[in-house]
Amino acid sequence: MNRTGRPHEIEPTELDLSVVLRARTEIGESPVWSQRTQELYFVDIAGQAIHTYRPSDGNQRVFTLPDLVTSVSPRVGGGLVLSLRKTFAFYDPETGHLEVLADPEPDRPRNRFNDARCDPQGRLWAGTMSADDWLAPTGAVYRLDPDQRITRMIDEVRCSNGTGWSPDGRTIYHTQSFRYAIHAYEFDPETGAIANRRPFVTLPPDGGGFPDGLTVDEQGFVWSAQPVYGRIVRYDPDGGIDRIISLPVSRGTSCTFGGPDHRTLFITSATETLTEAQIAEEPLAGSVLACIPGVRGIPAPLFAG
Length: 305
Fold this sequence. Notes:
Blueprint: E1 18-21, E2 28-34, E3 39-44, E4 49-54, E5 59-64, E6 69-74, E7 80-84, E8 88-92, E9 97-100, E10 111-118, E11 124-130, E12 139-144, E13 150-157, E14 160-165, E15 171-176, E16 181-187, E17 194-202, E18 214-216, E19 222-226, E20 231-235, E21 241-246, E22 252-258, E23 264-269, H1 276-281, E24 288-291
Antiparallel strand pairs: 1-24, 2-3, 3-4, 4-5, 6-7, 7-8, 8-9, 10-11, 11-12, 12-13, 14-15, 15-16, 16-17, 18-19, 19-20, 20-21, 22-23, 23-24
């Protein structure tokens, strides 16, 4: 559902969208497919909860945390690595044990973490944003290495969001929602260093929508969730629009490929900023949707620590 009042750049592609999980998450985010358990993991940031769903038998679980939980990624040795409001953490959903790690920016008390993803070598990349003023350039991107060392990689970020890597592992894509841009950097797989930022995609700042979470398919095309526009956009490796998937919700927040063959595109959504009247107009807001777009995704790397 496009609430920007602007037409899409190209005609959306007709695809059958299914409802994977009917919910009313306030901020559904950070979907990731676990190959080990054949489950979809995602978070409700404001709901302080991790959700799991296993398509093979419909099993659903919800794990409530004592703080905002802004991202979830499986670990090599089992369990999960999280970004919470201000800190990283390890969490075992089977036992409920939560080990809180460091706060990388104690000097920025009004910031909170947002989305995070693991690179192909198993390092976690997590970004922050201002909790009070989404346009403020107070955010940053941090790399959590397997030995728990934290390095600030990007600064002066306006709402850090979706991150992904090209199939060859040589390019990292990073979204700054309120610079209305996805940037591309050269990526050194061995060291985790980045260089030579360039604009990959930009949206009009006055367009009413913004780029949010993203994923990359095995052909190197980038899939960007764009709230308010109510769509997922697939960009070719040069940043051109390849196709648009129109959603029945206006706040599609992120997407990831999963399923046994990684051919299912799962899409999270939110009710945040919607009025009760608007939610009544889009009753699937906050739910998880899915489609089969005809391409395969790249399996999500595990956190190596």
